[in-house]
Amino acid sequence: MAEAPAQEGSEDLDRQSAVASENHDSEASMGENAPVEEPVVDTRPMMAAVLSDAEVCEVGREEGINVASFEILKMDPIVVAKAQEGWSAFLSAHTSREAVGEAIYSALFEGAPSLQPLFTTPRAVQAMRFMNGIHGFVTTLDDPVTLKTMVETLGFGHLNLDVTIPRVIMFRDALLDLLEVELLGTLDPEGLQGFRLLLNYVGGAIIFIKAHYADRLRLLSESWSIANGGNNSQGTQQNVDSSVQQFKKEMNASSASKKKKWNFGGQRNNEGDAVSGERQQTNTGKQTTDTMAQNVPTTYTEMFMFNAAVMGIGQNQWMIEVLSCFDNMVKNVANSARLQEECDVLVLRISRIQTGKVHLQEYKACMLASLRSLLPKDWSTAHEVAWSWLWENVERLLHKTMGNPPAWEAALAKFLGSLDESQAFEVRKQIYAKFFMSTPAGQDYFKQSNTYLHLIATKIMDMTMELYREPVKMVDDISALGLRHVGYAIPTELMGPFVSACIEVAQGVTQDEVAIEAFRWSLGLISKSLVRTILEGSTIVMKAINANNKKQMKKAIGCAPRGERATWMLTVQVGTQSISPLAWSVESGGLEAAGAIIQDLLTIRADRDRYYYGADELFARHPDIIHKLINHAPALLPDLMDGLVWRSRVTTNGMRRVNYYVKHLLVDPEGNFAPTLEWVARSQDPRVVCHPVLVLVADLVWSRIACRSFLYRKAWMIFMLILFVLSQSVLEQANQQSPKEHLRIMIFACRACIYLFSMGSLVYTHVGNTLRGYWKKDTVKVWGFVPVPEYLTNWQEAAGLVLTLNLIVMLASEPILHCYGTTSMIDESGQTIDLGLFTEECPDFHLRSFPYAVFSMLCMFLYFVLLVDLAVMNTRVSAFVLVCGRMMSEVALFFLALFITILMFSSAVGCLRSDDPHFQGLHEGGLSFFRMFMRMYSSKDYEALEEEPLILILVFTFLLSSLIFLLNMLIAQLSRSYDAVYGDMVGYARLKRINIIVETMPTVAHRRWTEFINSLNFEQRLEFNEGDVGLSGGLQLTELASANPTTTDMIRRFGGSTSPTIQWPEEDTIDDSDKYERLEKHIQRAYNRMTKGNRRRNGKVGSSNRSGSQNSEGEDKSGAIGSTGSEGG
User: Fold this and answer.
1) What b/e string do you get for 1019-1038 counting C-beta neighbours within 10 Å, with b at 16 or more?
2) pLDDT tens for residues 342-362?
3) Chain-centre distance of CA 626, in angstroms?
4) SS percent in the chain: helix, strand, coil, step 5
5) What is residue 14's predicted lDDT score, i.e. its pLDDT?
6) In the chain, what percentage of residues exceed pLDDT 70?
7) Residue 1053: beta bridge partners?
8) Cβ contact 815:727 at 8 Å
9) What is the dihedral of CA 548, 552, 555, 556, to 10 degrees?
């Protein structure tokens, strides 16, 4: 008996859901006016049914609020047009939609004081909800079906509020008063009547839905949460996905085990096939049941799989698809539009794996059995009715399109495949022509070239086909596309006209009704998903990013609960896809908004219970945030680094505590060395690298890890240099002065080590790198046509290759090898000299000893040059080396100018045919001028020039131009260049060290790295001040109090409630620009009020004068004068 009322309610909502689904189908058709069999609500005041409270019922009847039924609202077209015109005028009277929302919020908050306790949502959020909701209702007044769907969704969203008829009246009157005041003389009575009917309709629908379906929906929500272990939505979906994957594996294994076996003889055992099959199936069922019994099901998905296996229906592949979508269906049962969308997607997924008939009742039986098992104590008849009602509505929606997708897919593929290039081009062209004709405002958002617009249209048609073929992938792609459109700030109102234009063009191309229906249905589903994604993703934070307004961003963030503040700025989640507001603002160039987000995330806030600091959330969401800022917004990188530092305002003995929260700059999410320093080194910015945070990170890694590994790597080169110096300079000179055999043996041993180990390793390295570069075509062209391996672009690698070639030449001309076997030599006097072992004095080698000495000299230079990296051991020495390197270009220019000057003067002197031997020939003249410049020309030679005055004049001119002009120019250039480089030379030195760190860290053992990270104790919470234990993930140091004076507390502390669900109190951080802006707004408002008041008084005076003149027609002149005078006064 108790089930009867519930069943009646179920039938009512079944009828309503069926109508809603039909409405959605007609809406998705985009232009097809299907007849809708719905009871029509008259525009006259609706009579409410008799309720228990007679007084409330009487008020409802008097005010026209229908709480007895929920039907479609159909108004007179004139009333609809006037209401929409009035709403457009109301929007035009304000500067933005946010201002409209603020006006509505203020009117409701101030005009209905009793409703103020219901205003729990942040003001900015609720104001935009009011604006968007009313705007949607007014714009759909001419579409009663869509209006009913929107109102129904709103009603399901207000089930937790106590909405009564008096409150509806207060809400309605406050809004109507606002419209009358703002649209004085503009809003017609018909428009006002339209708004009244609309608000009555919405209020009555909310009360009706709450009275009939609130308990049932609450029961579904509570029981579903219990059935899934109380997980949140994201955790529930993750559990469903993992369980479904496990279920698929078990089903595949079970189906494989059911294959009929063969005997050992290679022949099939035909006897007893039925018996063995039954036994095998029984054994398989027992094994599956035993396996699941070992892991007791605790969630709905696990229990469903267990019951499906027990009931023998676990082999139905379509159940897996239903199971994957069921969570979204249950959670969106109150949103009929979203439920229809989920059912459409489910039909597509089922059609990909199931060709025969689908028995949906099997899922219902298994679903109810699973829920009864998970809720043994709470399960009741109400639960049975509620879940049966839910599945019956889902089943009805599924049956509407079940079986159609395969035929639609074939027809649509045939239609799209029949279009050649010219026809497809014309179709794309006609789409935009019709769209721009029907919606001129859309031209403001399509700013790309025609070729790109054609690419968009092509992708849209491809998406309609891919939706049938890969529905799961396309749902994710559509969600990602919708989130990108959130960042583009494209109005969703343009989606409908664009879809209609596409369908109209398709109808003109083909007469295949099935293809048109397939295109319409697919495109409608895509558009609904896009609109939903855009609306769900259009948070106030994303709107502030689109405006790129720092003040608006702070206002939007201020509405967030303190426990979710970081999430608001880092994640906008819609379905399985998400977008980061911070990343979007950085990549789209909204640096004002991005700076506000970074500053807010890295501001430490605190109440009595906990500290709130968004560094962990920031680097967890964006481990590559440093890389993003370097590439897209380098101006924000110092702000990020400043946010990782906390300085105490309290000093002790002239020192100040400083906390550097550098954990995420050192360690990546996997525990390895973070690529932060590599990104910084690539930026080549000497100023950023000098930030205290990066200085600390680089010095810490260098001193504790990289320095030792770097020295180990350079130790071999240092050892080879020592051997080379001994063999070529020290021992060689000692052997020449007093030849001894032990010295020659030592020379041979040193050279053998150099050729074998130094040259051998260099040859192996460069040959491998060269072959690898040419094989992978990793080359660069020198002089525009000679390809060389790219690794040689590093000057040290190039110097190493030159050293290798020189060592090879030295080995080829090695005197010890050429003189090997020569034991004696006859000197000039004819005596025989015993040369001994490893001699270099054989007669045949004297002519070739000079080239060997030259290449030996070059190798000595190269060995020393390759050790210039050791300068990084000290930052000042490294800075000096780098400055010297940067000055070399200026010196090279000076020598070039000097060479040209000497060449010019020596050529000119050669034309005089002088008898002076110093100027006979170009080479002699050039050498003489160079000696003059170097002040090596003797005074006697200058005296000899007195006999040739013309040459003397040229010499004086040369000395003036070279010694005075060119030399002073060199000094000036060096001074200027040094001034330009001086400010950054320490930064360049640190960049050099960071490059060496990045090259060295891959050679560090993982054990050493782990010990280093553990020694930093990043898990330990650091003190801010004495006894104030703060945040973890950093290092605490001390610095001089005068280094960075800090007079204010860098932690923003707040009293009051410590609940993470409330917002932070507003911070008084108004700058001068805000003050001037507020003053300007106050003046503008005062001016508007004065102007409006003058208009009203003028209107009253004018009307009084007109009425006075009319009344005076039947009176005497004196009476008319008196009347006019009194009115005028």
Assistant:
1) eeebebeeeeebbebbbeee
2) 999 999 999 988 877 888 888
3) 12
4) 70, 5, 25
5) 41
6) 81
7) 606
8) no
9) -50
Report the distance separating Cα 342 and Cα 422, nearest Å: 37
Q: Which residues pair with 1036 in a beta bridge?
A: 659
> CA 799, 805, 808 angle in degrees (round to 5)?
140
What's the confidence (pLDDT) of residue 266?
39
Can you tell me the distance from the alpha carbon of 1129 to that of 1117, in angstroms, rounded to the nearest whole number? 18
Inter-residue long-range contacts of 596-599, CB under 8 Å, 24+ positions, other chains counted? 596/550, 596/553, 596/554, 596/557, 597/553, 597/557, 597/569, 598/636, 598/639, 598/640, 598/643, 599/639, 599/643
Convert the pLDDT of each residue in 702-716 to its tens digit.
999 898 888 888 888
Regarding beta strands 824-826 and 832-834, do their DSSP bridges make them parallel or antiparallel, or are they unpaired?
Answer: antiparallel
Q: What is the pLDDT of residue 1074?
A: 61
Tell me the three-class secondary structure of 920-979, residue by residue. CCHHHHHHHHHHHHCCCCCHHHHHHHHHCHHHHHHHHHHHHHHHHHHHHHHHHHHHHHHH
Residue 578, beta-bridge partner list: 573
| Ordered alpha helix ranges (H), 571-691 | 581-587, 591-601, 615-621, 625-632, 637-643, 663-666, 676-683
Q: Could you give the dihedral angle defined by the CA atoms of residues 961, 964, 967 and 972, in that order, rounded to the nearest 10 degrees?
A: -120
Alpha-carbon distance 143 to 72, whole Å? 10
Residue 533 one-letter amino acid = T
Q: Distance between CA 697 and CA 1057 in Å, rounded? A: 38
Q: List the one residue out of 947, 959, 944, 965 whose CA is nearest residue 905.
A: 959
Please spell the DSSP secondary structure of 733-791, one letter per residue: HHHHHS--HHHHHHHHHHHHHIIIIIIHHHHHHHHHHHHHHHHTT-EEEETTTEEEEGG
Q: Among 416-420, 698-702, 835-839, 936-940, which is the least confidently predicted range?
A: 835-839
Residue entry with tokens 């295109």? 519
Strand partners, 577: 574
User: Considering only CA atoms, which of 305, 342, 299, 310 is closest in space to residue 320?
Assistant: 305
